[in-house]
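Reposting from the mailing list since nobody answered there.

I have sequence plus structure tokens for a pair of proteins and want to know whether others read the tokens the same way I do. The first protein:
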Amino acid sequence: MFVMRKVFLSTIFIIFLAVSCGETTGDKPVNKGLAGFQVEFAGDFDLGSPEHRIDNPEGGIVTTINITALGYDKKPVSDYSGEVEIGMLYGENGDIARVTLTNGYAENVGVIMRNCLDYDRVIVQEVKKHEGEEIYEPTGKIGVSPVFYTTVATISAIQGTVKGAKGNPSAFNNRNLTLKDREMVVIAVIEGGFYLHEVGAEDYSSVYMYTYSTPYVDDNIEEATSLPVGAMIESANGSVFEFFGFTEMSFPTFHPVYENKDGKRTIKIDTSLIPEPKDIGDILNDSDEMEKHEASLVTVKNVSVAWFNENDSSFIEYSQFPLETSSGASIMAQTLYTAPLFNAVAEKPEEGNTTHHYNFTGILKQHTSARPSTWILVPRDMNDIECLDCK
């Protein structure tokens, strides 16, 4: 009996080993049916290239595509019928959102490819409707078009906004982009980053590059140096991010323009390219117009400090306080990091205080939760605060 049990157990062990080592019986399973889609541009659509980029009109690139259902053998599935949604890898499709494939094919489907920068693709994905409901869910079966190359990213394109949305966010929010092929100059440097201006652009001309620490350069120069105001930037890369309505490029890498001076390789500096501050006194209540100057150099003239609660956290933590024009319009100011010697409490319109009038200049920021104004003026230093009636 002992010997028979031992033989039986040995047989079970051998079978276990065979199964665990992947030995199976029968035919190998084969995937059947729809695997995905082939997406092709119809006609003679020009894909462009990194060296030759296609035009990108304001209303979008208008074209058509052909969609073919493919099986796991990469051959057309001629008996397939189903619905697909058409979108973009980065941009958005402004034309037909959903089409039906019949006999595994849909021809000359219109697409309007909007908000495309640098490069993009059209994406097609199968969707199925919930029974009795107007809800469509993707099945995971997709297809992508060939890459096409459009206009490179610029500051003015990134700062262009989605109208009507709170804080007017960038149309390219959450996308990693590279700025190049434009003259760009550093207009301000702060502890956590710097402000970059696109030379020649009138509106949406500047953006905040959030480096998370004081920006410095050690790229092929004799010693590391803080990034100077007026530095010319050849290219910069970062991820577009909306921080309470304020457009930033986070974790950026950047490459200054270099020149040789006295036999040394140095960063090219041209402060003459820093634009004159824009007077925004007449547009403080027009958010769309203010948005055009976000992250730019601006000024408000003949303003005074309005009453505020000095025990409020916005003042204690960030030294934010309101400025008021003679017409009653307001904008917040923040002086903690860049102009800490300005005594806003002493300027409050209270008994015993002497209220002065100022021209305030600086960088225009936005914070959608700030009150009474969502717009914040940050002077670069004390020189940006000009008292008009101080003795």
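The second protein, same order (residues first, tokens after):
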Amino acid sequence: MSSCKSGKAGQKANVIRAEVFLAGDCRNTQSLLDSMKTHQFHFETLSSKLDCEAKGDSVKENFEVTLRIRRDSAIWMDVTALGGLYKVARILITVDSVFFIDYIPKDSDKKGSYFKGDFSYINHMLLADFDFDMVQSILIGNSATFYEENEKLHSYSENGKCVLSTIRKRKLKRVVNRNRELTKTDSAQTIWVNPVSHKIARLLFNDFNTRRSFDASYSDFNPASNGMMIANTAMFQIKAERNLLLNMSYRKIKLNHPLEFPFYIPEGYKRIYMKEPNGTVKEPERPH
């Protein structure tokens, strides 16, 4: 009997939290978290074609990307140009490893290069701090890190969106105005949630010590074959020692079909070496 009462009480609490959020009270942090988690995009496998425009300090290119994801297991990307006629790169990311092939020759031998290592390579290239879960979540517009930090979260309303942040609104405004008064932390995470669709419209990571930031925006939401809403357009912006802006348009999204993740190193390709923080060179292994 007590168990049944407890279950009903829990259900009633969830209903109350949902009603509060639907009523537009973005200040109810737990209600906002529950709703955002409920509306996360779920799948077993996902494949898509992407049109990608990359702009940076030394790059301005358009690419086509074939994306394949097996949930919590593998992310595979094949990058081409000129309508798929020109091979640019191939990437395979697993929970603990990163494989990368650069098909573009860097010298007169007309052969590319490859790398196999851990996430330190991605973080070295992007000047960021990612892991598999973060990359997977960012690609599909889910939140990766907020649920372990409930006690640090603050929520409020801003320009028609509900906002979740690891620093208070007043401090966040001071940081934006470059009048730094942070005391307990010099990094912040902020999520803007659409109160109607309950989907993430923007995700921002700031590291004020290093003056680095990662900013992701999502738009053009449509239902996928599983009935869940997913963004068809995404913008990723990295500001650091080197700046990078990626505009990506998703098309032909397919869910829960068998997928293959082919990856082999062409003969004669050179290995990419990366220096460790202590200055030593870490030699990557050759994937099978």
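Reply #1 (J.P.):
I read it the same way you do. Residues 101 and 114 are 4 Å apart (CA to CA).
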